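pinging the channel bc i need a second pair of eyes. not urgent but kinda urgent?? the chain im working w is below, pasted from the shared doc
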Amino acid sequence: MAKSRYFDGMNWRDRIEVNPDVLTGKPVVRGTRLAVELILELLAAGETERDLLSDYPRLTREDFACLSCLCQSSCARIPCLSPVGVDADSR
C-alpha cells in the first residue's frame, strides 16, 4: 500500500480491527465495540471529535487519526464516478 503524505508512518490497521465475533464482523476501534460506521455517522451528524472523546472515554485522538487514515485509504480506491446524467461509456 502506498504511503499517504498526510499520515506517514500511520497504519489504520493498528487501531481498527475486524473480528467476526464482534458486531458481526463490522470494523471496530480495537479493544472496543465501537463500530467505525457509528463513529463516522456521528461525525457526519455534527458531533465533534471532542464530543466523542468525552462520550466514549476509550477512544483516543490516535483512534481518530487512524479513522481519517482509513477514510483516505478507502477513498483512494473508489473508482471515478460519472456525474449524474452522464453515461460512463460516452466519455
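so The radius of gyration is 16 Å. and Strands lie at 16-17, 28-29. — does that match what u expected or am i reading it wrong
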